[in-house]
Amino acid sequence: MSQVSSTSTGTRAASCVIEPSQTLTISASANAGRQEVLPVIEVAVLIIAAVAPLLLQDYITVYATRVLILCLFALSFDLVWGYAGILSLGQSLFFGMAGYGVALLSRDFNVASIFAVIPLGTLIGFVAALLLAGFLLLGRHASSIVFVSLGTMTGAYAADRLAGGSYYLGGQNGIPSIQSMSIGSYALSEGPAFYYLALVILILVYLSSRFLLRSQFGLALAGLRENEQRIAFFGYKVQHLKAIIFAIGGAIAGIAGSLYAFHEGFVWTTMLGVVMSTQVVLYVLFGGSGTLIGAVIGTAIVEGLSFWLSDNYRDIWPIILGVLLLLVILFRPLGLISLVLGERERVGTFGPSPKEIRNAAS
Amino acid sequence: MDTLFIAAFEVLSFGAIVVLVVLGLGIIASMMGIFNFAQGEFVLLGAYITYLVHSIGLPVALGMLAAPIAVGALGLALERLVVRRFYAAPIVAMLGTYALGLIIREVVRGLTGGLYLSVPEPVGGSITIGTLHFATWRCVIVVMTVLVMAASYALIAYTSLGLRVRASLENPSLARASGISTGMIYSVTFAFGAALAGLAGALIVPLFSLFADLGIRFVIQGFVAVMVGGVGSFAGPVAGASAIGTFSAALPWLMSPVIADVLVFVLAIIFIKVRPQGLVSGRGV
Predict the structure, then answer these.
(1) How many domains does chain B have?
(2) Does the residue B284 lie in any domain?
(3) Is residue B25 domain-resident?
(4) DSSP string for B166-221
């Protein structure tokens, strides 16, 4: 998505880089005096999310919890695609592997403490993503984007098939009736408590991602997405950057997967497969890739619409979804968020603004 | 000995099916630089049209004739309306054609009611050579694949239309300067690729029966085959498809089908990693 429309931004951002005294500080644009929309949207979404369980009926809160967990999953895809330009069509691999991992932990070792489950899920996602990135992204030749997307998709397909054929993993039926997650002696069942747990984790992950992306590392990533070659010429190890963000994305997908497994109470092969991976692509494209809040909003809208529509229009809902997606890709390649968010703010500012630098110099 | 012949025939006929499905995908990918994620759904649509013609009481063979024409026409319309906007950005094209595929798949799912529908073979029975029996329809598919392949090759390598297609791939601006309407050429190429997929769907539907997810299975296989073969030439995707088809059909004789299925893809990805340009490198025919 971003490749298309942001070439001009990439050029602009890079053209104001070179000033001998400050090679490391880049300011994409002077935002001073401009109303910032992004924080407003973020706060609004946060408030809605925080009060939602108080207003919604219980069964909708359960549904909303699932949406929050999927938001987390969407963030992981947004990081690798929206920020680093890696088209991972197998993000569900990490989601599902973590889900299966914690389900086995619960089934075979009878461990369901949140302090074991979340770290394990994160670790599984991180390690799996790191290994896959090591194979797909690193190496003598830089991998083409089509190869990476094909490789990740194949990974998800293979995992789906293998899990479906494995007796130990429960075959096509997956692993049913996972016990409730526990915090100390408190058993966490679905409902408002689980909702707020998911919300807190989502906020923590969101804020850390936001921090990461506004750091020097995030700046390099944004440059990578806009113009990979130029970033390579600056001396960054492009493939390493990609592998790192891919592994971080995998870790976040792992957190989402382990939460999802305990929230649903069972894991099954779809969690690993291509269907789930493409689902997350839909969320992010819909909301707007390249902004963290876009991924969250996209997930909420798609899942919300599907909740309302699948009751009345179960048969044609997937068709409507396809048409909406096509329209968004054709006419709003940056997603729905671009209706309210300008290009300038999406790309963001890094470091002090030119004005501050001038003041400091004088 | 007999088993060996039977196995060899199985491998050959399945390889032919994969080549048939991948040919259209390969032509679009090589000649236009677009990875068409809706290709699997074009196959599905070809199968569905064959079923439709059969269900209103007309002969299946007529449906097989109608399928490539109808799917080709749809391909032309979609290229004009949608795909054309994606040429500047191949990645967006992948996502956009994915959305198209999703729409087609769900429409067919709605139309078939999510059922598995079977279509009879237009030519039943089997051919007997000595003590061996070969299903006639599988033989027909092998022969058709060879014919379609030869015809496509001749079209691209020897006709003036093929020359213009290759010119538009090689250097679009020079082609335009020489008076070739590249937009037109792209439309025709895309429609041709779609028609091939429609034909493939029509020919294989008696073997696989019709269900909405028919295309998904082939689209991953098709992409892997195109990448293994090498994008940019006519021979590449065909070579890749033969390799993938042969392995997919042969390995289940040696190990459990699930492992075999996965192993083919994993081996293919490793191969592409080691040799990114594919089996056949270079452009042209």
Answers:
(1) 1
(2) no
(3) yes
(4) HHHHH-HHHHHHTT--HHHHHHHHHHHHHHHHHHHHHHHHHHH-B-TTHHHHHHHH
A1: pLDDT strictly greater than 70: no
The pair of three-digit structure tokens given for residue A61, joined into one six-digit string:
């809160």
Tell me the CB-side half-sphere exposure of residue A268, using CA atoms within 13 A: 9
Residue B280 in domain: no
d(CA A10, CA B148): 46
- The residue type at A270: T
Q: Hey, are the CB atoms on B99 and A329 less than 8 Å from each other?
A: yes
Q: Is A274 exposed, middle or buried (0-12, 13-18, 19+ CB in 10 A)?
A: buried
Residue B34 to residue B26: CA distance in whole angstroms: 10
Rounded Cα gap, residues B249 and B14, in angstroms: 6
In angstroms, the separation between the Cα of residue B96 and the nearest Cα of chain A is 6
Residue whose entry in the numeric block shows the structure tokens 């991972």: A88
- Which structure tokens are listed for B90? 């191949």
E-only strand ranges, A138-210:
181-183, 186-188
What's the pLDDT at B21? 85
Give me the CATH number covering residue B183: 1.10.3470
Identify from A1, A319, A332 which residue to disrupt to test chain B contact, counting B C-beta atoms within 10 A and taking the largest count: A319
E-strand ranges in chain A read 181-183, 186-188
The answer to whether residue B176 sits within a structural domain is yes
Contact B101, B40 (CB under 8 A): yes
The answer for B 86-145 residues in CB contact with A (under 8 A) is: 88-92, 94-96, 98-100, 102-103, 106-107, 109-110
Token code pair at residue B263: 């192993």
- Note the pLDDT of residue A325: 85
CATH number of A36-347: 1.10.3470
Q: What pLDDT is stored for residue A3 in this prediction?
A: 41
Host domain of residue B269: 2-274
pTM, full prediction:
0.83
- A168's CB contacts (< 8 A; 6+ apart) are none
What are the structural domain ranges in chain A? 36-347
Taking the C-alpha atoms of residue B65 and residue B246, their distance in angstroms, rounded to an integer, is 28
